[in-house]
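Let's practice the habit of predicting before peeking. Look at the sequence and jot down your guess about where helices and strands might fall. Then scroll down.
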Amino acid sequence: DFTDDSEITYKEAVDVISALGVVDGYSGGDFRPDDVLTRGAAAKIICNLILGPTTASALNAGTAPFKDVPVTNTFAGYITY
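Done guessing? Here is the structure:
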């Protein structure tokens, strides 16, 4: 459960994808359903769906193929994939 469960419109769907490890929310335990989904977060969700969270979390960018995504970016491995 997320700390902001009451704000999540599609809570059942979020609970399912959270249980599968596709989304994990923020470090404070919240989901922030009204925030904008960034390219990096979207890439992470897609990689988690395709590869599974364990394999996806091991992705490494290695190089920076996009000028706006440095190799040190938290989501670089997901975006590069």
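How did you do? The mean pLDDT is 94.
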